[in-house]
Design a protein that fits this description.
Blueprint lengths: L1 E3 L2 E3 L41 H6 L25 E6 L7 E6 L16 E8 L2 E4 L12 E5 L2 E4 L8 E11 L5 E10 L7 E9 L4 E8 L1 E5 L5 H14 L3 E3 L2 H5 L19 E8 L2 E4 L17 E2 L3 H17 L9 H4 L14 H5 L18 H8 L3 H8 L16 H19 L5 H10 L29 E2 L1 H11 L5 E2 L2 E2 L3 H7 L9 E2 L6 E4 L2 E6 L11 E8 L3 E5 L5 E6 L7 H10 L41 E2 L4 E2 L13 E5 L5 E10 L7 E11 L9 E7 L4 E8 L4 E9 L7 E10 L5 E12 L1
Parallel strand pairs: 14-16
Antiparallel strand pairs: 1-2, 3-5, 3-13, 4-12, 5-6, 6-8, 7-9, 8-9, 9-10, 10-11, 11-12, 15-16, 15-26, 17-18, 19-20, 21-22, 22-23, 23-24, 24-25, 25-26, 27-30, 28-29, 29-36, 30-35, 31-34, 31-36, 32-33, 32-35
Helix pairs in contact: 4-9, 4-10, 4-12, 7-8, 8-9
Length: 768
């Protein structure tokens, strides 16, 4: 549920079930994140938003968004802007046209106009940098605002003035809708034109409109504190963004995969699409950001709402960070022990943080699929702006089942889990600690998330209230791509630091066969685990899915999906017409790289080998572990690893890391293969690294390679801490198993103290 000015809108925050495609769109354009200084002559032909119009005109309707873009022949700016832009009396002018407004929000005057606000700006060559990025609290009864990176340039038709443009977003107060627009003005060292603005796109299922206007503004030139640092940080931000290419280029970059780029964004009504992208091998292949006035000119800066993707990106990441910092037992802390209003409430006895993040508190009105989420109690929860009311409403569901046994979707449960985690953090770090600040400083910033996505909605419409947790964050294309990479191929590692607890992350990402989450009522293929959804795929979904696999994903209200595929790719789509179609993207990703680490999923047909021929290609699946998941291996939950700063891979990013804890434990890694009858000279080859803290000349920690056939189990080779070495290739003859099915298993044993790490990579079978 969402609300404006006390009016109620009933929604479902997750909407994770995949719908039948109703339309398709091909998104193939992109905006570059490179911002060079304009170097044209300034001879620009302009008939929309001319200098005369900005100096003394008026806005009667939206115009093409291309009029706000840097034109091809723009010249370098002739003035430097450093100071404060003040927008005041914005409600005195402007136009508004409601396109979808079933609850008549548009009849409220505050909804129809920009809020008043101030923004400090620093120019850096052709870049215009707001010093405050992300959510800016205005105090307006309808809107908060966010400003993105803008541009400055000169056109000869502007006379002595310099032209500026800023992308901006209106953010609904106490809710997560985002309406995107652009503003522009002319300036000199002493003067400023009127400001022209328009809003022509949004990600908001229940309120869609065009807004436009032109009004007087004030621009005071003054020294901005730390201006040099602001410029340096903007340079660093742009340099750290993932490389972007248009989605259409994916087929060019991988010409033999047979990728159909029209699948990305298919199934989404084109007018409802806000943004789409696919991340593969470190490249963010992006689509356009369509608006009702042409593509947004600054697509890389467009702000997208999190809605319930925040349940994963806030709830999950915060828990995994606390577990890594302190102990995974944080997940077992009781809600009632850390949320004062829950103390003494019988319904909350025995409910843990993990139960709340699993949507399994046992407290609900109806167990029907998202019935409670659309009910009156949740309506009151979303409407509540103050912390006391929001918390008491979240706690008001009655006990119906044993905690941990029944999945019932409640945004309020994530909110409570986040408040409990905030209390746990304060117990460790003092009363000034804040759970979102920890998430921002210790997870998001190290992962390279830019400043547009480093704020969140809080109670009391303030910067100091309780964070919403289950919604209320914001993304750019780069930010959501990096969050997905942190969950997926980076395995919770940024740089050389393990940010997130590997065991809990493996559970959330369906990498732990012993903890795959709770079933979603009514769906035989979907589960939910530590605030992350999961969908099973097999040949019934597509003929190329010969080996079953699971895709974890985030989901958000209206039509938001972020799929984090087991082959290391990710797909994100933001829309607002309740269309959750993303399976076509999974098919295309599988064509690029197998989801299960096997051979090419769509190979060209080859002749069958002769019975006595030895063909070893593909006998070992996922031998380099680069899918980031075990399959088709079976492994202990923490074995498949990408923490290069701790134990590097021999090649690529991923490897199998057995043991290394420094206490008594056993890790295993095994895979079954059928050795062709002709492979009497076959060899199992792999690279092995052994690193140890043991100092005594005794074999305390061991690694054993065994082979188990239908008739016997044999030890092929063994190692210990006494064999410490850098990566060394190992070749073990296995020709005696030609014609047999055999399971090869590595077993690592570690004693009670001093770690030994057995690291395996690049496993294959070859014929000598």
């Amino acid at each position: 549920m969402r609300a404006l000015h006390g009016l109620v809108v009933i929604i479902m925050c997750a909407g994770a079930l995949m719908a039948t495609p109703s339309a398709s769109t091909s998104a193939s354009a992109s905006a570059s994140v490179d911002v060079p200084l304009p170097d044209g002559s300034g001879d620009v032909t302009r008939d929309v938003l001319t200098a005369d119009e900005l100096l003394s005109g008026s806005a009667t309707a939206p115009v093409t968004n291309a009029a706000f873009a840097v034109p091809e022949n723009a010249a370098p700016p002739t003035h430097v802007l450093e100071g404060t832009l003040t927008v005041s009396n914005a409600a005195s002018t402007g136009g508004f046209s409601a396109l979808k407004d079933p609850h008549d929000y548009g009849t409220l005057d505050a909804v129809r106009h920009l809020p008043d606000f101030q923004a400090k700006l620093v120019q850096h060559d052709g870049l215009l940098i707001p010093t405050e990025r992300g959510l800016h609290i205005t105090g307006n009864t309808a809107w908060n605002v966010a400003l993105g990176l803008g541009r400055v340039w000169h056109e000869n038709g502007d006379g002595d003035m310099t032209r500026a443009a800023l992308p901006f977003s209106l953010i609904e107060r106490n809710a997560n809708c985002v309406h995107n627009g652009v503003m522009t003005f002319l300036f000199t060292d002493t003067t400023v034109s009127q400001l022209r603005y328009q809003v022509t796109s949004e990600t908001c299922e229940y309120l869609q409109f065009d807004m436009w206007g032109q009004l007087d503004v004030a621009l005071s030139h003054q020294t901005v504190p730390d201006a040099a640092g602001i410029r340096d940080r903007a340079d660093a931000e742009l340099a750290e963004r993932l490389p972007t290419r248009p989605l259409a280029q994916l087929a060019t970059d991988h010409p033999n995969a047979g990728v159909d780029v029209t699948a990305f964004g298919s199934g989404i009504t084109p007018s409802a699409l806000s943004g789409v992208g696919f991340v593969f091998e470190g490249v963010n292949y992006v689509g356009a950001c369509p608006t009702r006035q042409g593509d947004h000119p600054y697509c890389s800066e467009v702000l997208l709402p999190s809605y319930s993707t925040a349940k994963s990106a806030f709830g999950t990441l915060a828990l995994l960070r606390l577990a890594e910092k302190y102990s995974p037992s944080v997940a077992d802390e009781l809600i009632a022990a850390h949320v004062p209003q829950a103390a003494g409430l019988a319904a909350w006895n025995g409910v843990t943080i993990r139960h709340a993040l699993d949507m399994a508190t046992g407290n609900y009105t109806s167990a029907g699929y998202e019935v409670d989420e659309a009910g009156s109690t949740m309506s009151s929860f979303f409407l509540a702006e103050d912390e006391t009311s929001k918390t008491s409403t979240a706690l008001s569901f009655p006990r119906k089942s044993t905690p941990g046994s029944q999945w019932v979707y409640h945004t309020s449960d994530t909110y409570l889990a986040v408040q409990a985690m905030d209390a746990v953090l304060k117990e460790h770090e003092g009363p000034d600690a804040d759970i979102f600040t920890m998430l921002r400083d210790e997870v998001l910033i190290p992962a390279g998330i830019g400043p547009d996505a480093l704020t969140t909605l809080r109670t009391d419409n303030s910067t100091t209230g309780a964070p919403f947790g289950g919604y209320g964050m914001f993304w750019t294309q780069d930010a959501i791509a990096k969050v997905a990479q942190l969950f997926g191929p980076q395995a919770g590692v940024a740089g050389d630091e393990q940010l997130l607890h590997p065991g809990l992350l493996n559970a959330a990402m369906q990498r732990d066969s012993g903890d795959d989450g709770l079933a979603i009522p009514g769906s035989p293929t979907m589960r939910y685990n530590v605030s992350v959804w999961a969908k099973d795929f097999d040949s019934a979904d597509h003929a190329s899915f010969t080996d079953p696999f699971t895709v974890p994903f985030m989901s958000g209200f209206g039509g938001i999906t972020v799929a984090m595929m087991p082959n290391g790719s990710s797909y994100y789509v933001f829309s607002d017409n309740n269309e959750f179609v993303w399976a076509p993207a999974v098919v295309q990703s599988h064509r690029l790289k197998s989801m299960t680490g096997g051979t090419d999923p769509d190979p060209d047909p080859d002749p069958e080998p002769e019975p006595d021929e030895c063909v070893t290609d593909g006998l070992i699946g996922n031998g380099g572990f680069e899918t980031g998941t075990p399959s088709p291996w079976t492994a202990t939950s923490t074995v498949i690893d990408s923490r290069s700063g701790l134990q590097p891979a021999n090649s690529g990013t991923w490897k199998a890391w057995l043991n290394g804890f420094g206490w008594t434990n056993t890790d295993t890694l095994r895979q079954s293969v059928t050795v062709p009858a002709g492979c009497t000279d076959a060899v199992l080859e792999f690279w092995l690294r052994i690193a140890t803290d043991e100092t005594q000349p005794y074999a305390y920690d061991t690694l054993t390679l065994t082979a188990q056939s239908d008739t016997a189990t044999s030890t092929l080779q063994s190692w210990s801490n006494l064999d410490a070495q850098e990566y060394t290739v190992v070749q073990v003859p296995i020709g005696s198993y030609a014609g047999d099915s055999v399971q090869f298993m590595f077993t690592g044993h570690e004693d009670y103290s001093l770690q030994t790490s057995f690291v395996i990579d690049d496993v294959r079978i070859i014929a000598e």
